[in-house]
Specification:
Layout: H1 2-25, E1 26-31, E2 58-66, E3 69-76, E4 97-104, E5 121-123, E6 131-135, H2 142-148, E7 150-153, E8 156-159, E9 163-167, E10 172-178, H3 179-182, E11 190-197, H4 223-228, E12 236-237, H5 245-248, E13 260-262, H6 275-300
Parallel strand pairs: 5-13
Antiparallel strand pairs: 1-2, 2-3, 3-10, 4-6, 4-11, 6-7, 7-8, 9-10, 11-12
Helix pairs in contact: 1-6
């Protein structure tokens, strides 16, 4: 009986340790509600056929370290039309989305930047960022990298340091950045994450959001905000537990013109349980129940 008990505990502890090993590689992950790809609540997609439902709807965000790379995963409801998710043939395997991630590496208020790359948003001062990532499609044109694929540290832009790809089977977009470029994620890192439509014709990389939707222009923005230049550009953003995307993206002001402020998410900032945390909790509960059952059985004997 004692031998069986010992073997069982060794197996269970080994399972827990293996889960923790996997979880240790994941710096942060977060689910996002489905169907919130409406910006401040009113945005609608452009009318042209490539803009199918769900392409700007971010469902899951994850950051993990794989060897000498920090990997950022963005899972969407859809990447593009089901029969052609990359309709314009980008080298990255996708062409409709653009993502931006602003990383506060120390959580010291005021120690970094609070602006964004033309997203018509500011970052909360408490999570001023030291590292900014612009992630989007490209066709090998240097201009695409300047707009869509770069690492910004402080005031310095570094091009060619992001390896971008698409996993069509899982609707995930993947960006890999060398550890020696941005460092290894820690529990102090906080992330401000936003998603918009890609447009290579404009100066910002973002597809415009106007009052009325057109074939190549999104719609639903407030006319006064558009006139003042403060209407948020993203369709979807990640927000901490207790915050509401629709409310946050309406916090801009017309007079004086000020952008809405986006809050960061990250370890220690209340959010939904990530997948690995749920697994560990479930296994821990099973271990406790096994211990209780075994002790009761032993006492009864």
């Amino acid at each position: 009986m004692k031998v069986k008990w010992f073997v069982s505990m060794v197996v269970i502890i080994g399972l827990l340790l293996s889960l923790n090993t996997v979880a240790a590689q994941v710096a942060f992950e977060m689910m996002d509600p489905e169907g919130d790809d409406v910006g401040p609540g009113t945005y609608v997609y452009p009318k042209a056929s490539p803009f199918v439902a769900g392409i700007f709807d971010l469902l899951h965000f994850k950051v993990e370290t794989e060897g000498d790379k920090v990997v950022f995963y963005f899972q969407f409801k859809a990447l593009g039309p089901a029969d052609n998710p990359n309709p314009w043939g980008s080298q990255t395997g996708f062409c409709l989305q653009i993502m931006q991630v602003y990383i506060d590496t120390d959580r010291k208020s005021g120690s970094g930047r609070t602006d964004t790359f033309m997203a018509n948003l500011d970052i909360d001062k408490a999570n001023a960022w030291e590292i900014g990532l612009a992630i989007g499609p490209h066709w090998g044109n240097p201009d695409d990298f300047i707009k869509n694929n770069r690492v910004t540290k402080g005031e310095v832009d570094e091009l060619g340091n992001i390896e971008v790809s698409a996993d069509v089977a899982t609707n995930r977009l993947i960006a890999k950045v060398p550890v020696d470029v941005i460092g290894t994620p820690t529990n102090k890192w906080a992330y401000s994450v936003l998603v918009g439509g890609w447009d290579g014709m404009g100066p910002t990389g973002f597809r415009a959001v106007g009052v009325e939707a057109e074939d190549w222009v999104a719609g639903g923005a407030d006319s006064m905000a558009v006139a003042a230049g403060v209407n948020p550009i993203p369709f979807d953003v990640l927000v901490p537990e207790g915050k509401d995307q629709l409310t946050i993206l309406k916090t801009y002001t017309i007079d004086p013109p000020k952008f809405a402020v986006l809050y960061a998410i990250g370890p220690g900032i209340p959010a939904k349980f990530p997948t690995n945390t749920v697994l560990i909790i479930v296994v821990a509960v099973v271990v406790i129940l096994l211990i209780v059952f075994t002790l009761k059985k032993k006492k009864a004997a």
